[in-house]
Amino acid sequence: MTTVRLPLFPLNSVLFPGLVLPLNIFEERYRAMMRELLKTPEDEPRRFAVVAIRDGFEVAQTAPGLPDPTATLERGPTAGFGTDPLKSFHKVGCVADAATVRERADGTFEVLATGTTRMRLLSVEASGPFLTAELEPLPEEPGDEAGALAEGVLRSFRQYQKRLAGARERSLATGADLPDEPGVVSYLVAAAMMLDTPTKQRLLQAPDTASRLRDELKLLRSETAIIRTLPSLPAQELTRGPTSLN
Question: 24 exposed, middle or buried (CB, 10 Å; 0-12, 13-18, 19+)?
């Protein structure tokens, strides 16, 4: 299997292929990463890898008591991730393509990236100013009955979206607004559902599209039933993740 080494950006959230990821970069290790990415010619992809944090802090401690009053002050690329950062991260993540990298006057960065392909984390290197990782791509197999499952997931997702939006008072996406390619459906729904990080991570690393869609169908039915008993919650933009505090 061919491997690649890319800069590594750990987050407290899961990035899926096709999801837009806005980043507000202020930590020095990630500022160094963005300065390195800017050396890539504009006509080539500026790629880095995003992994969800299993055990650690997305933002390194900057002063005693922040963000964790019991933590000791750490510096460098592994700050917040322990002596063996590989153990702090989930092993399946997503390659991101930074379409926009804008440096502000104070040296911080505004970045807009998009998830592209899944990858598996093999090793982490911390000898430079930021983490890098050796990665292997994870192909996306369709699995059995992916097309029929995608249709069922879309029907259930519309009901879920309706409940989540509070609904009869708001216009909802029509069938023409949603994709029908099973792989795209599986990632869009995984990103849009209001789920915790371990559940989203489970969906990201599903062995094939059909397995992910089956899992989503169960989750959608369960979550929709729960939402029926709760007050209305705000809907979430489907292709965009929250801005990371980095």
Answer: middle
Measured distance CA(96)–CA(89) in Å, rounded: 17
E strand residue ranges, 69-108: 92-103
In terms of C-beta density within 10 A (0-12 exposed, 13-18 middle, 19 or more buried), how is residue 150 classed?
Answer: buried
Query: Of the candidates 185, 133, 190, which has an alpha carbon nearest to the alpha carbon of residue 13?
Result: 190
Flag whether pLDDT at 66 surpasses 70.
no
Using one digit for the tens of pLDDT, what is the confidence trace for 132-145? 999 999 999 999 99
138 Cβ contact partners less than 8 Å away, ≥ 6 residues apart: 92, 117, 118, 119, 120
Fold of the domain spanning 146-229? Methane Monooxygenase Hydroxylase; Chain G, domain 1 (1.20.58)
Range ranked top by mean pLDDT from 77-86, 116-125, 154-163: 116-125
Asked if pLDDT for residue 174 goes beyond 70, the answer is: no
| 4-62+69-137 maps to CATH 2.30.130.40 | yes
Q: What is the pLDDT at residue 65?
A: 54
Compute the C-alpha angle 226/232/234, nearest 5°: 110
